Amino acid sequence: MRNSYIRYKVEAWDSLQHLFKVKKINDHTLHFLAAFESKLDYSRLKKSIAVSAEAFPLLKCRFNENGRRPYWENCSFTADEILTLIETEDVDNAVKRFLVSEVDAFTGPQIKLGVIRNTKADTLVILMNHMLCDAAGYKDYLYLLSSIYNNIGKNANFHPPVSGSRRLSQINQMFSLKDRMKILFSKNDMSAHDPARFQLEGDLNNPLIEIRSIPEDVFLGLKEYAKRHNATINDMILTAYIRTLYKTFGYVFAIPSTVDLRKYLPGHKAEGICNLCTNLTCGIGSDIGITFEETLLKVRDSMNKEKSSISCLKSISMLEKVFDVLPYKLAESIVKKSFKNAPIAFTNIGIIEKNRFYFDKLKIKNAYMTGSVKYSPYFQLAVSTFDNKPVLSVNLFGSETDRNNISAFLDQVVLELYGV
């Protein structure tokens, strides 16, 4: 029998992610893949998942909005209902099918894991509901699962502490009253976006994840180039993206770029697994420059200016207040009408830390994370990095023509980087 009497609070970002799906901006599934050179201990992995769900109970819940306010309803899902073993010699196709499957918020659980196994090795695929966390929170879960797996190999009774607060207000508490007032009265119109959009056919029955991997030697060269120009890898990839968009559309426009607000917290660490992000806007004006270097310097300066401002906090501060104070349906209606998502965006998921994500001594050949799958006409380039190997990705519910166009676009972004 499910313990449905246990309920957990739905936070403001949970509700916003839900609206993204309602408004057909994107589904709310985060994707992760790790390919190993040998096999995991399946029974230990299953136990690790059960322990992780005790530390982060929302994994065992379903989203319920039948009451006056929505809530996470405990359904006590077991590890057997969360984890699937698929034994096949056609690993690639099995991985592709599992990777694009969705997590259903209303039925739960909020996470799905698949071990795709051939006679020699395993590929681990993990899918999580984006309503529970952003990319940084997702990485926190990956590190938690890894830690549990490694620890219970030595101590079968190992249990980590329960995940803490998921509220956005943990960010606001870091600022003085004076700074909070600055945030409140700042001008930060995050609903104004350029109308440029890709001509996508879309296909709700065909989720696509297109990726491009950048070899370690190329990545290290890019890092050195960025360092010489007092720029970041994020600036480099954003520059390649903007230059490719310019070639596609014939003009320059501002690009929203996700920022992790944990940078304002002690140790850059949130109290719990949650959503703590917002957007910065990279606007370099109408002149892209001639060379990659010229564009990079414009991107660097724009991002440095954006990162030094606290005005980006206004939207999430208002979001939490709206959902805290107003009746849920009214708050949902206001946010649904007022919040507009950019047709074209960028997100850097960041580094998946090799020294925090590992399973005993099993060698990981490659690993990457992607965001949610967009509905046409929305388009987002994402990048994640593991072991000095970045992976660029674009996710879309699209046709095979869309896949071909996305593939060609990604090739151009990579060519920009290789040309440095």
Explain this structure.
The protein is an alpha+beta fold and 420 residues long. The protein is 37% helix and 22% strand. The protein folds into 2 domains: 7-152, Chloramphenicol Acetyltransferase, CATH 3.30.559; 176-418, 2-Layer Sandwich (Chloramphenicol Acetyltransferase), CATH 3.30.559.30. The chain has 13 helices and 15 strands. Helix 2 (42-55) packs across helix 5 (135-152) and helix 9 (233-249) packs across helix 13 (400-418).
Largest sheet: 5 strands, mixed
Q: N-to-C SSE series?
A: EHEHEEHEHEEHHHEHHEEHHHEEEEEH
Rg, alpha carbons = 21 Å
Strand order of the largest sheet: 5-6-7-2-12
The fraction of residues in strands falls at 15-25%
* Name of the CATH architecture of the largest domain: 2-Layer Sandwich
Count every beta strand, where a strand is a DSSP E run of 2 or more residues.
15
CATH topology of the largest domain: Chloramphenicol Acetyltransferase
Provide the descriptors you would attach to this structure in a database record.
420 residues; alpha+beta; Chloramphenicol Acetyltransferase; 5-stranded mixed sheet; 15 strands; 22% strand
Give the SSE map.
Blueprint: E1 7-9, H1 12-22, E2 29-36, H2 42-55, E3 61-64, E4 71-74, H3 79-82, E5 83-87, H4 91-99, E6 111-117, E7 122-129, H5 135-152, H6 169-172, H7 177-184, E8 207-213, H8 216-228, H9 233-249, E9 255-260, E10 277-282, H10 292-307, H11 313-325, H12 328-338, E11 344-352, E12 364-370, E13 374-375, E14 379-386, E15 389-397, H13 400-418
Parallel strand pairs: 5-6, 11-14, 13-15
Antiparallel strand pairs: 1-4, 2-7, 2-12, 3-4, 6-7, 8-15, 9-10, 14-15
